[in-house]
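Lay summary. Proteins are chains of building blocks that fold into shapes, and those shapes determine what they do. In this project we predict the shape from the chain. Here is one chain we studied, written as its sequence of building blocks.
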Amino acid sequence: MNKKLTLAIIGCGKFAKHFAKLFMAHPYVEKVYACDLIREKAEEFRDNYGTEIIDTYEEALASPEINGILNFTERHIHGDIVIRALKAGKHVYSAVPMASKVDECGEIVRLVKETGLIYFMAETCYYYPCAMYCREEYKKGTFGDFCYAASQYYHNIDNIGYGKTAERGMPPLLYPTHSTAMVLSAMDTYATEVSCFGYADKKGDPAFKKDGNAWENEFVSQYVMMRLANGGVARVTEARSFGWNKPSSYISGFYGTKAGYEFSNAQHLLVEKDFTTEKEHVTVRDVSDYVNPEDMVAAKGEPDFKENVANGMWQWSSPAAIQANDVARLPKEFDGLVSGHMYSHKLLVDDFCRAVYEGKQPYLNAWRAARYTVPGLVAIESCKMGGKVLPVPDFGMPEDC
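And here is the predicted shape, written in a compact code that computers can read:
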């Protein structure tokens, strides 16, 4: 393409604020508009970040100047927002999830395949250091044949920011990609079957009654087993009944025939089978300094270190050593700007801008977005059916992706 981007932020809420300055600063971006149903929110973006205002989403879609949509709307309407943008000929950067219906995911894939447009799902956990570490070691062959992994996203319902909105009672697995993206990207595989169980709300929250939300959902936490195309199995948890005061997204275990990765709080361990001796023996390597953020590593001798880790002190402060190569390719215009969620924000914004500018599909494209989203949507139905094993549709993957 080699044409600078003119973008429109759709939905000027709290999450979009973390990205506005980054898009404004990127050298491939010419101009950024802001659009929200509540005009005062768009005006806040104009006043604080230097964006311009466009009054409605329909105007943004009709504008020949705007070639990209930045979707930060409510989670359960993403499918409609994205499909309309692609049909209008716009590239799309979208917060997660991809969509709330399997057929919407399929339609997004179809439109991208038909038009060649860029759809980018901004899944922060793809760049979480634990996911990057498991990808790195898996590619090296350290783990051998993959057997099992466990990943989870713990975020208490009272701290997730839903308040009393329509989203509060939605099934946790409608928002699955913080868990699925980590383990599935590590092996670049996908789920073929799922079985899911749930924990029903016991606090009397009216949002989690079958007649209290649009999904007839009573489960405040959901736990799913996924059979994978590579022959392994993964367990994914999306919990809103615990998680205390902060979100926690991580891989707790990743195991193959030769080695395993284990994580708890601030400690990351690689446990490898010792093949040099006939006696059953393993070696243990502490890789915490490589995987933890630099500021966290510098503070590890402090007496309240572990408690501060548990309270998320360093999730927004600095990159980890494992992220060094990706950080090195970021534009100098990002220097001094904040990069949240384990330093993922800058990397995601740069990935999208480069993909559109260069006309190349990104790694977090429509096909992978579907592979990270659809298992959760199918698991919701399995949960309603008491854990029945259900097949997961797959929309394939282009050879050049």
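What the prediction tells us: The chain is about 35% helix and 25% strand.
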